[in-house]
Amino acid sequence: MDDALQLVIEMNEWIWSRFKGDLKDVTPEEADWRPVAEANSISAILRHLRIEPEWHLAAVERGEPMPVELPVSVRRQIEAAPTDFERNLEELDDLYTRFIGALGHTTLAALEQHTASAYQNFSGAASRPAHLLGFHQALHLATHLGQIRSIRNLYRKTRGEPAFFPENPTFATRG
Fold first, then answer.
1. Most confident of 80-89, 92-101, 158-167
2. Where are the domains of the chain?
3. pTM of the model
4. How far apart are CA 14 and CA 38, in angstroms?
5. Residue 173: per-residue pLDDT
């Protein structure tokens, strides 16, 4: 392993561990619950998260570009992806674990080259970090974990249960 990548690997391992830990006791009803009809459920968010890691893995392993314009074949794959919470979590676990493993087998220079290849078709290339591919997925996962935690809190509060996230003294409590 390239020691220069240790920090990005730790970041990915840590957020993945937190993510799995926060989803380990989600019930089927909770996974499919929506606070309003227009909102995403945890299952819908997990489906979204399950689709993109294949692209990140191909980019870090082989330098393949991320799709910007999706051909019909890729659109069909996306449309066929189920909202099955358990299946998507299992597949995401496999893909994210493989992604972290692939980071451990690359070098900083290769990661920079693969980042350039992966995002070559995206606008704003001048402002893109040179090693974005190494931490983009962790940021994406962390963002959606915040959404999932919010949904879990709302779900529990609507049922008179204690909030999912433990009490935090930095938040004021209202009676």
1. 92-101
2. 3-157
3. 0.86
4. 31
5. 60
Confirm if 42 and 149 have CB atoms less than 8 A apart.
Answer: no
How many degrees, rounded to 5, is the angle at CA 71 between CA 136 and CA 69? 45
3-state SS assignment for residue 131: coil
Task: Say what the pLDDT of residue 128 is.
Answer: 83
Q: If DSSP codes are grouped into helix, strand and coil, which group holds residue 37?
A: coil
**What secondary structure does DSSP assign to 62-111, as a single string?**
H-PPPPSSPPHHHHHHHHH----HHHHHHHHHHHHHHHHHHHHTS-HHHH
Confirm if 1 and 9 have CB atoms less than 8 A apart. Answer: yes
Instruction: Kindly report, residue by residue over 112-127, the tens digit of the pLDDT.
Output: 999 999 988 877 656 7
Greater confidence, 39 or 78? 39
**Fold type of domain 3-157:** Four Helix Bundle (Hemerythrin (Met), subunit A) (1.20.120)
> Among 132, 120, 110, 117, which Cα is nearest to 12's?
132
